[in-house]
Amino acid sequence: MLPSGCISALLTRKKTNNNLFLISGPMVPDMFKSIGQLRPPAAPRMQQHAVRMALFLVGYAFSTWATLIPFAKRRAGLDEGSLGLLLVSFGVGCVAVMPFAAPLAAKYSCRAVVRCSAAVACLVLPLLAWFEHPLLLAGCLFGLGGSMGVTEVVANIQGVHVQREAGRPLM
């Protein structure tokens, strides 16, 4: 049995243009020379569908909240002025969190950021129907607005990338 240092000295890894690592060396059979792909690039159609789905889910989450507004107003005992002030927290959440979306996408990837922000939206949305106190509703709306804002920004970043790869206008 060879020590692990010997095996790593016998194998070389070369990165190709499509994120594939070619493994080569004297002891590697031909059928295993192209394994080692870290993350296979998604097909362009799959990327287009993923962007469309992310944007659809943001609209769906917002429409779900819109149907809950009369219920939340009645449950919290708010008048029109208080409800308007409460709804401002959604926009404040969007504006406050959107500047962090692009740096997060650059650091972690669009896929990871969309997954996390969608998970936050999925956790916060049911709480809007459950909480009765206006401050708790405002906090949930802030979180929902922030998560939806991040998802929108990152989906648009990915959409621009997909459009450039396609070489034709898609958005």
Brief summary:
Helix 2 (44-76) packs parallel to helix 5 (110-130) and helix 2 (44-76) packs antiparallel against helix 6.
Query: What overall geometry do the principal axes of the alpha carbons give?
Result: elongated
Distance between termini? 57 Å
Give the H and E element order.
HEEHHHHH
The biggest sheet, with number of strands, parallel, antiparallel or mixed sense and barrel status, is:
2 strands, antiparallel
Fraction of residues in β-strands: under 5%
Specify the number of helices: 6
Strands, total number: 2
Parts with pLDDT < 50 across at least 5 consecutive residues: 1-38
Helix fraction by DSSP (H/I, runs of at least 4): over 70%
- Roughly what is the average pLDDT, rounded to an integer? 80
Quaternary structure annotation = single chain
Rg, please? 23 Å
Task: Report what the structure shows.
With 171 residues, the protein is mainly α. Helices cover 70% and strands 5% of the residues. The chain contains 6 helices and 2 strands; from the N terminus they run αββααααα. Strands 1-2 form a two-stranded antiparallel sheet. The N terminus is likely disordered.
Provide keyphrases for this structure.
171 residues; mainly alpha; two-stranded antiparallel sheet; elongated
